[in-house]
Hints:
This protein is mainly α. It has three helices and two strands, in the order αααββ. The chain has helices at residues 5-14, 24-42, 72-81, and strands at 85-86, 89-90.
Amino acid sequence: MKLTSEELDHLAKLARLDVPAGERETMQEQVGAIIGYVASLQKIDVTGVDPTFRGVELGQRLREDIPDAGDAETRQALLEAAPEKSGDYVKAQAALGHKQG
């Protein structure tokens, strides 16, 4: 399919492209070939084919969330190094800006 000069001008305006005079004929053929290819794809019968968002389905690759307190020596060393603590926990500033009473 070959585009007319007016169709090329219209597409160039929509795409905000400046098509130099020396490239107009080549551009008309190339864009026409693309439109022809898309038209051939539209003829394919896709009845019963579910739409997809990607060619390969990806699953969640997450590890199981298992709490681990670590060994007692490491835990004690970390608690001793913390500037503030509350019992067996390190006291930290609220991450979301909430004030505790």
